[in-house]
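anyone seen this seq b4? input:
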Amino acid sequence: MEAVTLKMERKQIELLKERAKVLGRSQAAIVRDLIDTHLTSKKRPSLHDLAKEYCGSVAGPANMSTRKLTGYGRD
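predicted toks r here
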């Protein structure tokens, strides 16, 4: 393994120390796990990716703002 030097805020260092102590692991092992988790994971799908099968599936006029409003104070 190679060594890397990081500059971190004091709060981040304290969080890292606490997490390492709780888990009974070294600080380096915690950082390696975080890098593996966050940098090798696939990108989260966007809302459009999750709902693209429903896009354009509503029946009605192309411009929904032109329809007559009833029951909304414009009878």
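DSSP finds three helices and no strands in the chain. Residues 48 and 54 are 9 Å apart (CA to CA). kinda curious what u guys think
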